[in-house]
Amino acid sequence: MNNRIDSDIQIVSWGVLLFFLFLLLLKWLRHLRNATPSRRFLCRHRRLSKLKKMDWEQFERLVQVLFEQQGWHVRGNTKLGADGGIDLWMKKWHGEAIVQCKKYDEAKVGIQVIREMYGLMHEHQIAHAYVVTTSTFTKECYRFVEDKKITLIDGKGLVRMIRQRC
Asked: Residue 150 domain-assigned?
């Protein structure tokens, strides 16, 4: 009788173990399926001319995918209407960050955008901010961020980041 109970426990244990291994395999396969289209999406837009042809929603999605590829957990802004200057909210093991995306053809991103992000960092108690554009930043922007945790990513820098992931 005791051997039968031990045998039943072993069978149940193996069944539970196989069930969890199956769930792990499904999660891994889902991750692979989702990661491949994201990488292809990035690689299709690895030229600045392609980035500038995107609409603003596609551009925000591309920036989101790029940061996800770097290990960030990223979510878009969930507010309806104006986003309050924050397009993406990000988390990683070492902290949180916010992102503002500016898809401009030729105009430079001005200091007002950067000052707004600096204010939003303090308002939301966020340690780091990123401003990403398809264009460039004014010299005043670069001077302003010198001693702050704000990263400016211009169009050429964005293309370099995308090509590193392709």
From this structure: yes
3 occurs within a structural domain: no
Domain count, the chain: 1
Please, are residues 92 and 100 in contact by the beta-carbon 8 Å criterion?
A: no
Q: What is the longest distance spanned by two Cα atoms in the chain?
A: 83
Instruction: Count CB atoms within 10 A of the CB of residue 8.
Output: 10
Asked whether residue 121 is assigned to any structural domain, the reply reads: yes
Residue 67 belongs to a domain: yes
Q: In this predicted structure, what is the pLDDT of residue 81?
A: 46
Calculate the CA dihedral of residues 148, 153, 156, 162 and round it to 10 degrees: 130
**Measured at the alpha carbon of residue 29, what is the angle toward residues 65 and 96, in degrees to the nearest 5?**
35
Which residues span the domain enclosing 72? 45-165
Instruction: Report pTM.
Output: 0.74
* 23 Rama sector, left if φ>0, alpha if ψ -120 to 50, beta otherwise: alpha
